[in-house]
Amino acid sequence: MIGSLRGLIVAKAPPHLLLEVGGVGYELEAPMSTFYALPAVGETVRLLTHLVVRDDAHVLYGFATNDERGLFRNLLKVSGVGPRIALAILSGTTVEGFAACVLANEPAALTRIPGVGRKTAERLIIEMRDRLDAGDSPALQAGAFSGTAPQAEALAALVALGYKPAEATRLLKSAGEADTTEELIRRALQGAAK
Predict the structure, then answer these.
(1) Which of 47, 107, 117, 169 could bridge across to 121 with cysteines, CB 3.0–4.6 Å?
(2) Most confident segment among 81-90, 103-112, 137-146
(3) CATH at 80
(4) Section 127-140 average pLDDT
(5) Within-domain flag for 139
(6) What pLDDT is stored for residue 7 in this prediction?
(7) Phi/psi of residue 176, nearest 5 degrees
């Protein structure tokens, strides 16, 4: 499996990208979130990759962050969601935004993404919420709270303590604002004890 590539950007035409690595040109497809982070043509970039093997082709997908690749891989596990829809989701929302939609049970927000209908959005909510609750996606858990860095760190800590992401998010919201991660965790745990 090809885990990552570091090379020169030869061409960019969303969602396609040509990356030259050691004299070999790799064709990749990437979400718009990755395209926004890419340097100009002729500059060097490192992308994390995921290879999808089909009967008629091998398609390499590139991602700027591990969170994007993690979400892409989790989306592929959802019934009826293939690489095209997963790429559209990553192009239409952030990892944190997607996790927030799942935790808030908002399929209508997902139907605004081209290619995602009502039934697919509902299936995404159900299956991805189960994955969030089961802890299959640390990237989604850490990014599920779309607040400040201390809030995201506090959420990850509460999930590590055994709270489900939805419960941890509720506890953090009731804890209010704090300057440090430790203070947020302390307030959230005090709220849970009540």
Answers:
(1) 107
(2) 81-90
(3) 1.10.150.20
(4) 63
(5) no
(6) 96
(7) 80, -160
